[in-house]
Structure formats: structure tokens, C-alpha cells
Design a protein that fits this description.
- There is one protein chain.
- The protein has 636 residues and is an alpha/beta fold.
- The chain has 10 helices and 35 strands.
- The chain has a 10-stranded mixed β-sheet. An 8-stranded parallel β-barrel has the order 3-14-17-20-21-22-23-24, surrounded by 4 helices. The chain has a 5-stranded antiparallel β-sheet with strand order 4-7-12-9-10, with no helix packed on it.
- Strand 9 and strand 10 form a beta hairpin.
- Helix 9 runs parallel beside helix 10 (515-525).
- The chain is globular.
- It binds alpha-L-arabinofuranose.
- Alpha-L-arabinofuranose binds at residues 52, 54, 251-253, 372-373, 448, 486-487, 499.
Length: 636
Amino acid sequence: MLKKTFACFSATLALAASALIASGQNAPATLTLHPDQPISTVSPTLYGLMTEEINYAYDGGLYAEMVRNRTFRGEWSGIPYWYLVEGGNARAKMSHDATTGPSAALPTSLKLEIEQADVHSQAGVLNVGWWGMALHHNTEYKGSFYAKADTAGIGPITVSLVNDDTGKAVASATVNGVGTDWKQFTFALKTGAMEASSTNHLVITAGHAGTMWLQLVSLFPPTYHNRANGNRIDLMDKLAAMHPAFLRLPGGNYLEGDHIEDRFEWKKTIGPLVDRPTHRSPWNYQSSDGMGLLEFLEWCEDLHMQPVLAVYAGYSLAQEHVNPGSDLEPYVQDALDELEYVTGGPDTKWGSERVKDGHPAPFKLTYVEIGNEDNFDKSGSYEGRYAQFYKAIKAKYPDLQLIATMPLKDMKPDVQDDHYYVRATQNFADATHYDKADRNGPKIFVGEWATREGAPTPNMGAALGDAAWMTGLERNSDLIVMSSYAPLLVNVDPGGMQWETDLIGYNAIKSYGSPAYYAQVMFASYLGDHTVASKLENGGAKLFYSSTVNTAKKQLYLKLVNASSDPQPLQIALPGAQPKAMAKLVRLSAPDTQTTNSIDDPNRLVPVESPVHDVSSKFSITLPAYSIEVLLIDLQ
Ligand code: AHR
């Protein structure tokens, strides 16, 4: 979302600056830029994405599956999100059956015992979805389930999408052939003319007495790039607009799990869904693992990102660790297998598994992260664990860059992952954090960072903190090879959020970007390849900038952040440069720091684009209070 207006920097702004001087107030801020004097390189991979299964980011979020608890995990109170349906005088009961299922990975099922039913009084079950099921007009929804019955005479099964308010079916299909052995059935539900709504549920019924078992009930809307088992289009579009260069996967804490057995076991996330047992995420809910290793990689492919693959390194959050040495060997081997699955040819064991899973071409991989936040491992075992992974991986893949998750004493890792979750004031104070950092140490990956102000999504104050921080990332991008905001996604429905301040919010039917999201879009859309010599005078503590040049496009990108409550007049000098007279300005601003976007007011703050007239080698602009700007100046 980018609003276009026409605004020009009128002479009054320059006059305002002169008036300030005349009235004896501080001298105006002056920014001198030398686009012809390169200072340091900017990494082409500076901006990327970091996500994990938190805040219903995949299940109930990006991963487009509409059925919640599709594998019928039972709890003491029943099977969550599933309910019994007894139409008319039908009589039935449902229960969790631990004795039968379609696969070794899914050995249980939902058992539906129909005592009485007929064509007009059907019995079955319904699923409420992820806080509803979003339906649009004239759209096809593709579904499937595994089923068996005690008798082949159970008859046709009706599958319908039903509106919660009217109780009427919006789309229906019939599935025939359920017999006494487990088998997968597919169906398509097509809506007609209707208003888009998320107050719908899925109903599966039979019109004959008998017992039926169900497992892995799935339903997908159209997905991004029409991928089977794919992603939500609106969210993928929002991520694409961030121009991400990489995806750090699969986490975060999600990689580690609370306990070793809860780690992201990649081998249990590949292949047919029926062979994925699902697992517990450390964010207190079960992950369907529909977003498995290959789906992560295909997501990278869809958005032209490179994967930054984190491998489990023998530490889980409840202070469980694996000792370096022979205990760790199976985990190292598992990581080697994973690298082979990602990058190996069809002649390799795991490469051929990937081919079997439907992706013949290997993926390009440059960075591998060993673990996550191992500074929390109180056993102090990380030095040894990292060294063991490093030796084994480098022996087979010498070109891979291996990321350490904390500073190391005994060796210099290729890259070190630093994380920052702070308040805006800290980011204002710390925007120079890396200015004096050691250039002989490891390269830096700022793998998780965010200004945490605002819930569920950041407000303008947070966006200002983020933007100030990003000016420092750009200035130091000779050192900082990559950076990614976290967490990225949050389902804003009640109970959807486990972690406050997340970049993009959504419910079943719509999504929105926070002001901080738009700050990222602005910064990443205009990434130069080197910084240029510059000097800011009289800027004050709340004015931040970054100046880079895109050599191929002959453009100067000037990012400006005025985090103050006052407008900021600024004189810009470009000695020696001959800018074209017209430039473009992209601006995000707000009346105060608390203003934000929300699911019901998604476009309150969006960047506004306008032409800037009369750009010359010396010109003035005034930055409104609480504003973030990107000024694009064409160089001759
Ligand atoms: O982004 C939320 C969590 O913060 C990540 O899972 C973890 O790596 C960090 O502590």
C-alpha cells in the first residue's frame, strides 16, 4: 500500500529554517553528502526474513490449511475444534480412537459411531477452523481426508462449507467409496456468488448408521503460485513487498523445542503429510508440520530468497543439552543429512529423497546456523558443540559459511548471530552500535531484532526505533551481512499471540502491515550497494540517516528519520554532485508515537510517495515530527 500525493518542498520550508537562525535558535541541521566518495559496501543480503511457529505464524497463518487440528489430537475434554453434528433425528457419538490410523506417523483417529441417520437426518462432525474459515465468491477449495468404515455400506459422505450465522451450506461435495480399509479421498468445494466472510465451518456427514473413522482432514484455498500444501496469498504478497534476500529457518526457539524430543526434527517434516507425526512447538501448541523443510525451501524459491538454514545443535530450552563428542555425533550426522537433502544431487541418499518429494533441483545454500541462542545453555557446552559441527560440515562443504549463535572464545566463526529486543529509546541511543565494531572478527548476522512497543503489532514509536536502528545496519553493512526482524507474523484473534510486537497481523480473512512493516519495506526497497561520505551537523539526538548509492541505477538513497516531536528543518548539500532536478520522496509519518495500524484500520499509516522539485546541489527540506523518509535522487 503506497499512497501517492503531490507535494513540493516550498520555499517556505527554507524560509522557516532561515527564520530559526534569525530568531537566534540553534543553527539548522546540515547534511553534507558526497555520492562520488564511496565509504563501505552494503551487503545485498542485508534484509531478510526470520519466522518460526509462534503466534500461529504457519498453522493459522501463512500455511493456508483451513482445518484446525486436522490430525484429531485428543485432550482430556475431547477433540479440540471438532464437534458432533446430529441433523434432525440422527443419533451419533464421536471419540478419539487410539487404536487405528492410516499410517505409523498418524496411528490414531476420530471415531464416529452413527446409531441412526438417513439422507435427510445426517450425522457427522464439524471443524471450526482457525477462528473461522475464510470463503470468497466463485472460489474452489480443495480438500482431502483419510477414512475407513466398519462396513462398505456407510454410503456417500457429504462434505460442506456452512455459514455459521445462517446454517446454510455455501458449497457441498459428495465423496463415495469409503470402505473397510484406510484410504485417502479428495474433494473440491466451489462457492458461488457470495460475500466474502470468515464465519464458516466445515461439515462432514453420512446418512447411514455405522462406524466411520477419519484422519488428516484438510482443506486449502487457492495458494500463492498455486502450490499444493501452499501459503496464503495475501501474506506472501506482503512478504514479497519487503524484498527479502533470505529466510532464516526454521527458528528461533522452534528449532530447539523445550525438550530435545521437541526439536525441529526435519526428517519428520518431509514427504506425504500422512507420514508427518506433528510435534509440540515451544510456544505451547502442536505444530502440524505442514510447513516442513521442503515447504520452507519452496517458500524461499517463491520469493527469490536464499535459505539460511539453522540446524539443531544439541541444546533445548529446558536446559537440556547433548555433550560434545560421541553423544553429539548422531545430531551432527543428522545435520549433514539435512544439508544433503537441501543441496545434494539425485545420486545422493538424501538428495534423492528430495527428488522423490517432488523437487529435483538442489537448492543453493550459503549460510548454515549452528543452533539458536546458545548463550542460554548454562552448561557452557556450545564452544565444543559448535567446533564439532564446524569440523564435520566444513570437511564436506568447505564453502558453507557457518554461523555461531553467540561470541566464541576458542575460535572465530564465519558469522556471529546477534539478537536485540529493545525499546525505541534504546535503539535511538544504540544506532551507532556497530560503528566501531571490530572488522577483523566474524561477520555479523543480526538474526533477530525489533523495537518492542505496541501489541499485537508495533506502533509508530517502534517504527521510528526500528528505522533509526536500520540506519546503523546500513552504515555498517560491510560487517553486517544479514539482518532480520522477529517475530514476523501474528494471528490477532484472541489467544493467537504468544509474543508481543510482531510485524504483520492477520485473522482468517485479512492481514495488515504495521508502521514498522512499512519502515522495513521502505528501507529494503531502496538498498544501495555502498555507503557514501557524509557529515551531519547540528542534527540533535533524534535525527538519523543513512546514505547509499545504487551504482547500476545511478541513484542516491537518503534515508532520514526524525524521531522528535518537532519538525526538523534540514539543509542538504551535495557538493560536486549534479543531481537531476527532480527526486522522489517516500514518507511515513504520524501525529504521535502511539498511532498504529490494526486489523480494522489497516491503512492508517502507510508510506506516501511524492515528487520533489528543485533538487540541486544544495536544497532544504523539513522533516515532519515522527517521520521516516527515503529520498531518491537521480545522479547524472
Ligand atoms: O522471536 C521470538 C524468540 O526470541 C525466538 O524464538 C528466540 O530465538 C528469541 O529468544
